[in-house]
Amino acid sequence: xxxxxxxxxxxxxxxxxxxxxxxxxxxxxxxxxxxxxxxxxxxxxxxxxxxxxxxxxxxxxxxxxxxxxxx
Length: 71
Hints:
By secondary structure, this protein is mainly alpha-helical. It has one domain (2-68): Arc Repressor Mutant, subunit A (Orthogonal Bundle), CATH 1.10.10. Helix content is 45%, strand content 7%.
């Protein structure tokens, strides 16, 4: 899936860069150009990084309702 249309960067490219040691959004931007044009892709790119780093996002609704927390 294309994450950054301006620079034609896919989620696969972001994951590959992450696996090659680029862990921060700043590093991804410098290497792939993600987010250096219109900026609409930044949130999606951050989500790709988080999903593939083993870090979960804090979702307030889940904290407020323990029955929604995955087992």
